[in-house]
Write a structure and sequence with these properties.
The protein has helices at about 5-20, 105-120, 130, 135-150, 160-170, 180-190, 195-205, and strands at about 25-30, 35-40, 65-75, 80-90, 95-105. The chain has about 210 residues and is α+β, with helices and mostly antiparallel strands. The mean pLDDT is about 85. InterPro entries: DauR-like (IPR039446), DauR-like_HTH (IPR039445), YheO (IPR013559).
């Protein structure tokens, strides 16, 4: 095991690496448990500084787990942080330093809120029936994905036989009545146009 000085040097490098990897959203703080002071701080998000009181009085780590968390805490600006604390032990197994990684989740929460607002169904209007009553592409898409769910199949992994059956089912649903439907279905199913037209000729002869 490293001595206290080399251990702190190693932890500082780890702290700098984590802070650099998750910049600007991660702060890493090293607490010296022998002095109950902050020994090092990388990417300061909490407005503390080395030498400040660590606030760890009464914390028992001797028999505890080396990793605590993740847990949630509130930063000075009211924004939430998700934190993990890691105990570094000396040669006798006694905790000497506590490395705390504080990840600001504000950016992720803002992104989630933006997505929720953008995708909110309350902002959608009903599809205008007159404008899209002959939208054969959407009708094909709806039938296609209902068919895939029933068959528990993935569009990109359909076998030749599955594609043949799907073309047959689409044909019997009238999907090929639209002028460009055959080309569209061939593209969606990644089939050659000649193969689709071959299946259609066979179906018409039944």
């Amino acid at each position: 095991m490293p001595n206290s000085s080399s251990q702190l040097e190693l932890l500082r490098s780890v702290a700098d690496g984590i802070a650099a990897l998750f910049f600007p959203n991660a702060e890493v703080v090293i607490h010296d448990l022998s002095t109950n002071k902050i020994a090092y701080l990388a990417n300061n998000l909490s407005k503390r500084k080395p030498g400040d009181d660590a606030g760890l009085e009464g914390v028992e780590l001797d028999g505890g787990a080396n990793v605590t968390g993740p847990y949630e805490k509130l930063n000075w600006d009211g924004k939430k942080m998700r934190s993990v604390s890691i105990a570094a032990r000396d040669e006798q197994g006694k905790p000497s330093y506590l490395l705390c990684i504080n990840l600001s989740t504000a950016m992720f929460e803002d992104a989630r809120n933006a997505l929720d607002m953008f995708l909110s169904v309350t902002r959608l209007q009903p599809q205008p029936q007159e404008l899209f009553k002959d939208d054969w592409q959407e009708k094909i898409n709806t039938f296609l994905h209902d068919w895939l769910r029933r068959e528990n199949a993935a569009l990109g992994a359909l076998s030749r036989e599955q594609k043949r059956r799907l073309v047959s089912d689409l044909y019997h649903q009238g999907a090929f009545k639209a002028k460009s439907a055959a080309d569209y279905i061939a593209n969606v199913l990644s089939m050659g146009r000649a193969t689709v037209y071959k299946h259609l000729r066979e179906l018409k002869q039944e």
